[in-house]
Structures are given as structure tokens and as C-alpha cells.
């Protein structure tokens, strides 16, 4: 096992790498390279992070769960939506009927803590095997 602690932006990150003892020597450099690749995300990388959030949407008269899922671009299957809503997947919806489902949204991280005053410091890496 390889443990690395990285102090960055007011947080301490722990990176753990595990390998079978008979393979450890073969992957040890890869584990260290991975820990040393730690850096802030670029704007482009941050924009590629998505989460699925629970949402409530209105159905249309006669619409199926599958049609609703397609209309709102839910990543959930019609079967999963039916289970969450405790209803058969093939029963048509009523006008304005509320349906719970997942919607894909861009991830918005909470505002990070303010960095300490003074000149910026590079990440500190402390490795322990």
C-alpha cells in the first residue's frame, strides 16, 4: 500500500494505492506518478464533470414514462423511473402528473475556503509506504 497526503487549497487530500504484494514492485512507480500528477482542474476538465440529480417533472396527458424520460433527457431507464414512482412503467401519465426522475446536470462544487494570506504555495506531497 502506498499512502500520500497532499496539502492544497486549505484541504488535505489522501491518495491511497493498493496492489497485491507480488505485484507491488511492478506498479510502485505508477502509483507515485499518479500521486505526483495531482493538480487543480482546468476549466475544460471541470466542465466535463456531471452528476445526476433527483428532479420532479410534469408529465403530459397519455405520455409514457419512456417518452417522458426521452423528452427530458433523463439518464434513468423507464423501469428505474417506474420503481421510484411506485407505478407500472406502461401506465400512461395524466396531464400535469408529477414524476420523480434523474436529470444530468453540470457539477457545481461549493465555494472553496479562502486561501491563507501570503504568496501562493505549491502542493506539499508527503509519501509514506
Low-confidence stretches: none
Q: Give the strand tally.
A: 5
What is the count of helical runs?
A: 4
What is the CA-based Rg, rounded? 23 Å
Query: End-to-end distance, in Å?
Result: 6 Å
Give the integer mean of the pLDDT values.
Answer: 89
How many domains in all? 2
The proportion of strand residues reads: 25-35%
What would you call the structural class?
alpha+beta
Strand order of the largest sheet: 2-1-5
Question: How would you describe the shape?
Answer: elongated
Oligomer: single chain
- Major beta sheet summary: 3 strands, antiparallel
Characterization of the model:
The protein is an alpha+beta fold. The chain folds into two domains: 1-40, no CATH class; 47-106. Helix content is 26%, strand content 29%. The chain contains four helices and five strands. A three-stranded antiparallel sheet has the order 2-1-5, covered by helices on one side. The chain has a two-stranded antiparallel sheet with strand order 3-4. A hairpin with a 2-residue loop joins β1 (2-8) and β2.
Break the fold down into its secondary structure elements and pairings:
Blueprint: E1 2-8, E2 11-17, H1 24-36, H2 43-47, E3 50-58, H3 65-72, H4 78-85, E4 98-106, E5 124-128
Can you give keywords for this protein?
129 residues; 4 helices; 2 domains; three-stranded antiparallel β-sheet; single chain; alpha+beta; elongated
Brief account:
The chain is α+β, with helices and mostly antiparallel strands.
Amino acid at each position: 500500500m502506498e499512502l500520500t497526503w497532499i496539502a492544497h487549497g486549505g484541504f488535505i487530500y489522501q491518495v491511497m494505492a493498493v496492489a497485491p504484494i507480488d505485484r507491488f514492485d511492478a506498479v510502485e512507480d505508477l502509483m507515485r506518478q499518479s500521486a505526483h500528477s495531482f493538480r487543480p482542474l482546468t476549466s475544460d476538465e471541470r466542465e466535463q464533470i456531471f452528476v445526476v440529480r433527483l428532479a420532479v417533472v410534469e408529465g403530459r396527458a397519455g405520455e409514457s414514462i419512456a417518452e417522458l424520460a426521452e423528452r427530458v433527457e433523463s439518464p434513468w431507464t423507464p423501469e428505474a423511473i417506474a420503481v421510484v414512482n411506485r407505478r407500472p412503467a406502461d401506465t400512461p401519465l395524466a396531464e400535469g402528473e408529477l414524476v420523480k426522475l434523474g436529470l444530468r446536470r453540470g457539477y457545481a462544487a461549493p465555494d472553496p475556503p479562502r486561501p491563507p494570506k501570503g504568496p501562493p504555495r505549491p502542493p506539499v506531497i508527503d509519501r509514506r509506504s
